[in-house]
Amino acid sequence: MSNLGSCNTNHPAVVAWVKEMAELCQPDRVYWCNGSEAERRALTEQAVADGVLLKLNQEKLPGCYYHRSNPNDVARVEQCTYICTDTETEAGPTNNWAPPKEMKERLHGLARGGMKGRTMYVIPYLMGPPGSSLSKVGFELSDSIYVALNMRIMTRMGDVAYEQLGESDDFNRGLHCMLDVHPDRRYICHFPRENLIISVGSAYGGNVLLGKKCLALRIGSYLGRQEGWMAEHMLVLGVEAPNGEKTYIAAAFPSACGKTNFAMLIPPAHFQGWKVWTVGDDIAWMKPGPDGRLYAINPEAGYFGVAPGTNYQSNPNAMKTIARDTIYTNVALTPDLDVWWEGKDGDPPPVATDWQGRPWTPASKEKAAHPNSRFTAPMANNPALAAEVNDPNGVPISAIIFGGRRASTMPLVLQAFNWVHGVFIGATVGSEMTAAAVGGMGQVRRDPMAMLPFCGYNMGDYFRHWLRMRKRLKYPPRIFHVNWFRKDGEGRFLWPGFGENMRVLKWIVDRCHGRADANETPLGWLPGPQHIDLAGLDGFTTEDLEKVLDIDLEEWRRELIMQEELFLKLYAHLPKEMIFQRELLVARL
Ligand code: OXD
Ligand code: MN
Q1: This prediction's pTM
Q2: Distance from C-alpha of 136 to C-alpha of 350, rounded to nearest angstrom
Q3: Minimum-distance ligand to the CA of 374?
Q4: Which residue range(s) make up the domain with 408?
Q5: Which of 190, 208, 227 is the last residue of a domain?
Q6: 157 with 296, same domain?
Q7: Percent of the residues in the chain that have a pLDDT greater than 70, as a whole number
Q8: Which of 26, 67, 350, 389 has the fewest CB atoms within 10 Å of its CB?
Q9: Does one domain contain both 105 and 21?
């Protein structure tokens, strides 16, 4: 196969690589994406004609389309995800590892002729604002038109990538072949030293939109360590006070723990004049600025969010964002071609088609939408989009928040004593598993910095990188931990969450500016019940707040043992500071 179609670049390294991959995969056609609006329309029409997308009710959902994935392919697959560094130690005990040469041979074997009868889409994309020193260029070669259309929403796709690249050869190479979408032939592989990703056998977003988890987190974290920056699984938001003061905050929660909701929070009526702006909802790239503060950009241009539970109560800004120009995947379909999912506003439809295409009614035992069904929506639709989202310099971060989904043990909020203690708190995050990845639903697992599935190298070295970054910051962000998910003995949530999280956010902002009190506890600085503003929160008392802030020593004994398990696993590369922090915590408790 030497016909490269209407190639839209002379960049020698790009052309050579596309040629090599086309010779390997043997597509019938090569199509070079330019990112234009006309192209989006044409590809969408093609996807509808191919049965990949279904046009939704355009009166209700203008510009929206529907996609169903193979039922065996609905979430990230951590067991099929590999970090192919030269040595197993570099990948570390929390990653699957395979030798690069062998793995590449196996993947090339699978990809050989794998695009016969299909089109290879060449997708040039830019992660981050044009002109930013933090931004990175990638090329994804995919035989999925769904991927091309999703990448156009999730990244700055097309000519803008060539402009950023110029004559440089520094770009990420990403190959994606769907093959027969069979779990036995599914591999998501990263070759960090070559800045290369090969993903085969899947068509699910997190496995195949290669700019997102693969480049922006796994390869990004590896490059960040070498180049002196940080790639983190964090939302970034700006809190604007009534006097115009803006405080930017980054927060790392594991997948499907409410990052999108928190990034789009609307403050309750009591907080008149306060506003939260979204910079990003999933990924932050951060580096020290010339003033000694940590600056963050959102490398993405869209939201790939979990649909179930999203409604006008939990996240009005998301509902407005996904009302147009959105691709829905694996939600339920109503007879008038509207979409539905568990937890959407209003009553369930009397009849619908479920995410597998089967008839569904409210009496059905199974869920209408897959628990990990998704929307892909452009960030430009978000009414709360921060103006600074395109600023090549990023935004200065005042606080970093870690969090997990914990029914017990972790109080609503606490502040670390200092950066090293904060790194320890991030390193020991535990969270109940969600539907975003296959397996283990509900079990508490350690998910350091919410990066367990996304750290592209040895987790112990990653902690060391965090510790090292402190030395490059004159004004390091304060570090906090939150838990919105604590429950009482009857399994009811103790904290109302969603917009009411503003009350905690306000305390965090005030702590950053040195104007909020806290009590010293064994875990860190905690607000007393009098320090969180509860005005206007009907039926919620200071006693309720005490319960959600409680530190239970019995629970903490168990927690310390679970933390120890992670540290034993990482022992060979664990920075000694983490062991000291653990000893200090044991002594304080
Ligand atoms: C995501 C995830 O899709 O973390 O963002 O799984
Ligand atoms: Mn995520």
Answers
A1: 0.97
A2: 47
A3: 1
A4: 232-302+386-588
A5: 227
A6: no
A7: 99
A8: 350
A9: yes
Ligand 1 atom nearest to 306, measured from its CA = 3
Q: Say yes or no: CB of residue 329 within 6 Å of ligand 1.
A: no
76 Cβ below 6 A of ligand 1:
yes
The verdict on the CB of residue 446 being under 6 Å from ligand 1 is no
Say how many Å lie between the CA of residue 295 and the centre of ligand 1.
23
- The answer to whether the CB of 187 falls within 8 A of the CB of 107 is yes
Is 214 among the residues known to form the active site? no
- Structurally, the chain folds into a number of domains equal to 2
**Phi-psi sector, 126: left (phi>0), alpha (psi -120 to 50), beta:** beta
Q: Is the CB of 325 under 6 A from ligand 1?
A: no
Q: Residue 199 belongs to a domain with what CATH number?
A: 3.40.449.10
Residue nearest to atom 4 of ligand 1 (CA): 255
Q: How does strand 275-280 pair with strand 339-340? A: unpaired
In the prediction, which pLDDT does 236 show? 98
Nearest CA to ligand 1 atom 2: 255
Give 316-361 pLDDT, tens digit per residue: 999 999 999 999 999 999 999 999 999 999 999 999 999 999 999 9
Ligand positioned closest to the Cα atom of 372:
1
* Ligand approaching nearest to the C-alpha of 434: 1
Residue 356 lies in a domain: no
Boundary-marking domain end, from 212, 227, 242? 227
pLDDT in tens, 474-511: 999 999 999 999 999 999 999 999 999 999 999 999 99
For 286, how many CA atoms within 13 A lie in the half-sphere containing its CB? 33
pLDDT at 1: 45
Q: Are residues 158 and 217 in the same domain?
A: yes
- Please indicate, yes or no, whether residues 101 and 117 belong to a single structural domain of this protein: yes
| Per-residue DSSP letter, 369 | S
- pLDDT category at 437 given cuts 50, 70, 90 is confident
Query: Among all chains, which residue has been given the structure tokens 């010293």?
Result: 520
Q: List the CATH number of the domain containing 246.
A: 3.90.228.20
Pocket test for ligand 1, best of 259, 282, 372 (most atoms within 8 A of CB): 282
Give the 3-state secondary structure of 266-302.
CCCCCCCCCEEEEEECCCEEEEECCCCCEEEECCCCE
